[in-house]
Amino acid sequence: MSVDTVSLTGWGRTAPTTAVRFRPRGDEEAAAVVRGRGPRGVIARGLGRSPGDAAQNAGGSVLDLSGLARIGGVDATAGVVRCDAGVSLERLLRVLLPLGWLPPVLPGTGRVTVGGAIASDLPGLDHRRAGSFTRHVSALELLTADGEVRTVLPGTTLFDATAGGLGLTGVVLSATLRLRRVTTGLMAVSTERAGDLDDLLARLTAGGDRLPYASAWVDLMARGRATGRGVLTRGEHATPDMRPAHAGRTRLSRRPGAAPGRSLLPGLPPLPGGLLGPAAALCNEVRYRGTPRARTGELRPVPAFFHASDALPDVRPLYGRGGLVRYRFTVGYGQEETLHRVVRRIAARRSPAVRAVLQRFGAADPGLLSFAAPGWSLELDLPAALPGLALFLDGVDEEVAAAGGRVCLAKDSRMRPETAAAMYPRLAEFRELRARLDPTGAFRSDLSRRLGL
Fold first, then answer.
1. Which residues are registered as beta bridge partners of 216?
2. Which of 63, 127, 62, 118 is CA-nearest to residue 89?
């Protein structure tokens, strides 16, 4: 097992803190770290894709599980896989797709580990039908505060606390997942433009679940009658009769020259704050105008549909040295006016929001701190160094909370503890369970201390 002292951040590169990082080679070494933890406790970490501070532990220990990445076995008849928590969804997809199966839920990036997907209870593009990630976990192995490994099954309180529990109930070591059957490696995709937010919501609703995977990019810099305009993308798994006769085997590779981690503008400094806004507005205008008004039947490889951003260069340097804040919230059906007000506030502020994703959610999942609930979800990225951003987002928090909505804890980097308590009614139950299972506070993170989880 390797050990070093490092400065760590989330993917957003905000608020770096220093911790001792352990990289175990097996479950027993991971258990030894938990048993020998210091007074600041320990938190598990995967590929570091959480935008905020959920996988940081200032002055304590961080258990890096990215090396525990074995795929124990795939039952291609029953559609079940058992794998280590450090396996990435990208790798799992690469292994399963040629066998005619997919991971049960796929978020917008494949560079998330199975353990991270469980700890965040990640929703995918078809939440209305499939729910979040842990709905498809049939068992998991959890390393608890006493250094013991427990098999945890759905329907138990510990499972519900671990699903979306941000690593605070223990360390997920492995999981057994139920898979989704597919007959080709292609998606049939439709794309359409919407002229404003009302139009976009109507199109998302009118589509129903005929095409189960759906999300929309929203232009948060458009104002006036175009406020909230966007591009809706929907998809379904292509069947063999949809494939062109000349189509060969779908390759699971990135586009040439798009190696991960490379800057979008190699060798150039971040854009000065005064130029970022106009550049973002121009980028949004080009994206909107460059999309066909309506297009159906386009065939795309599965990885290109779900993980298109993984094939692009790293855009984080454009947000400046202060990093980026990823803000994701959900409000229920019937609270569309709240969504409208938030979009208008962001547009009026002229915040340089290039990435903004709107989705519909279905039934809530049983996790005590699971994020997804029936309604609308909007996720956006903003430069952390924007003047007045903290105060502005505090105001949005209050509006979301007043509407009965919530902000995603797994992506948060700045929310106040009283706001989190107002948004998550089962937080007291979660705290009580933690106090019972982990009275000495073995599992801690910067996020848990900041929000009092």
1. 232, 358
2. 118
Helices (H), 76-186: 89-96, 114-120, 127-130, 157-162
DSSP, residue by residue, 269-332: PPPPHHHHHHHHHHHHHHHHHTS-SEEEEEEEEHHHHH-GGGGSPB-GGGG-TT-EEEEEEEE-
> What share of residues in the chain are helix, strand, coil (percent, to 5)?
30, 25, 45
CB-CB contact of 336 with 138 (8 Å): no
Distances (CA, A) of 10 to 161, 267, 370: 23, 23, 20
Q: For the chain, which ranges sit under pLDDT 70?
A: 244-275
Q: Which two tokens stand for residue 15?
A: 């608020």
pLDDT at 256: 33
- Token reading at 143: 């390393």
Q: What is the DSSP string of 332-358?
A: -TT-HHHHHHHHHHHHHHT-----EEE
* H runs (alpha helix) in 197-298: 197-206, 273-289
SS3 string, 404-443, reads: CCEECHHHCCCCCHHHHHHHCCCHHHHHHHHHHHCCCCCE
Tell me the per-residue pLDDT of 370-404, one tens digit each, with 9 for 90 and over.
999 999 999 999 999 999 999 999 999 999 999 99
Residue with tokens 């599965």: 302
C-alpha–C-alpha distance, residues 131 and 364, integer Å: 7
CA distance 376 to 372: 9
Rounded distance between C-alpha atoms, residue 56 and residue 106, angstroms = 24
Only one residue has tokens 């299972």, namely 437
The partner residues of 230 in beta bridges, in order of sequence, read 194, 218
Q: How many residues does the chain have?
A: 453
Six-digit token pair at 47?
């590929």
Select from 191, 190, 200, 192 the least CA-distant residue to 220. Answer: 200
Q: What's the pLDDT at 317?
A: 87
Per DSSP (E only), the strands in 97-144 are: 101-102, 137-143
Residue 244: its pLDDT value, please?
Answer: 67
Q: Indicate the pTM of the whole model.
A: 0.92
**Alpha-carbon distance values, 386 to 217, 292, 306, 310, 323 (Å):** 22, 33, 30, 26, 10
- Report pLDDT for 164: 98
Per-residue model confidence (pLDDT) at position 245: 54
Instruction: Name the token pair of 372.
Output: 């997804």
Q: How far apart, in Å, are the Cα atoms of 118 and each of 40, 76, 247, 335?
A: 24, 22, 36, 28
